[in-house]
């Protein structure tokens, strides 16, 4: 189940990107018929992406953006986002995930207080999709190429230059930002994050739609429509996907008791767990365990 794509679960991502003292990580993402979607998730780091092949639909903060080869995508920290392809045979992108603190976001200087901390707090409405016609595109593209070259070659003191070019990218984007009118408002995105957080904590328990609807102050009917609209799946499908991902994690950690794993992740019907696992991963739990040997 391992690949170069970011984790597929639609929840807050707890993976570490890079090292503690160098929180920058490069990812090559591939989407195709066998893996057409990276479902909604978010993390503490920002992302800077260049689409290198194909086209896709990005959903960022619950809004859709059609992107194609050559486009650059910027995603600030803690924003919900997902990627999907439709009529494209194959899609590739190159992404740098980096923590704003690496750029000085936790400092007490003017750069942090005026720009980086407000960026983390979403006080700026930043441009997310930068296409070739955007006035910042040419400079941002050159900046991205320098980042790629530095990350690949890793010459002495490359970390200093990499930090400088990431700051340059933020500078270029800030020239086309504006004050966020929704700053401090409890948005639909916040409601969805609360629901996904709740599922991530309580996935092993029996979760009722009424509980999740209550977190959003919605009726059950409104909540189910809201969830499916933004997650492209029903709430039950999402919960089962979380449980299946958790079962894979347990198998990979060496737990070979299928019954124990099934029960621990919230599947209390073993035959249903087998069917759901095979439908998603195209193999039985036992076959998956053997593939790890």
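^ Assign residues to that structure.
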């Amino acid at each position: 189940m391992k690949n170069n794509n970011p984790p597929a679960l639609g929840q807050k991502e707890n993976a570490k990107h890079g090292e503690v003292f160098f929180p920058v990580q490069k990812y090559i993402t591939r989407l195709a018929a066998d893996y057409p979607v990276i479902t909604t998730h978010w993390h503490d780091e920002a992302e800077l992406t260049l689409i290198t092949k194909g086209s896709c639909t990005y959903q960022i903060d619950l809004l859709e953006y059609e992107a194609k080869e050559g486009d650059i995508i910027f995603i600030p920290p803690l924003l919900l986002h997902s990627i999907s392809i439709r009529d494209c045979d194959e899609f590739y992108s190159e992404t740098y995930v980096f923590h704003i603190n690496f750029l000085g976001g936790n400092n007490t200087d003017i750069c942090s207080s005026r720009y980086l901390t407000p960026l983390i707090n979403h006080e700026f409405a930043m441009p997310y999709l930068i296409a070739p016609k955007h006035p910042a595109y040419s400079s941002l593209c050159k900046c991205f190429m320098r980042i790629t070259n530095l990350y690949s070659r890793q010459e002495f003191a490359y970390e200093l230059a990499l930090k400088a070019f990431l700051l340059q990218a933020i500078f270029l984007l800030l020239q086309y930002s504006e004050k966020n009118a929704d700053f401090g408002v409890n948005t639909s995105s916040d409601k969805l994050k609360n629901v996904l957080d709740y599922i991530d904590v309580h996935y092993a328990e029996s979760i009722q739609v009424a509980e999740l609807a209550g977190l959003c102050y919605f009726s059950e009917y409104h909540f189910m429509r809201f969830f499916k609209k933004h997650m492209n799946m029903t709430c039950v499908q999402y919960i089962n996907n979380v449980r299946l991902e958790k079962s894979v994690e347990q198998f990979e950690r060496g737990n070979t008791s299928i019954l124990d794993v099934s029960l621990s992740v919230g599947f209390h019907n073993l035959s249903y767990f087998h069917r759901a696992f095979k439908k998603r991963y195209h193999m039985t739990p036992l076959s998956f365990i053997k593939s790890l040997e």
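The longest strand covers residues 24-32.
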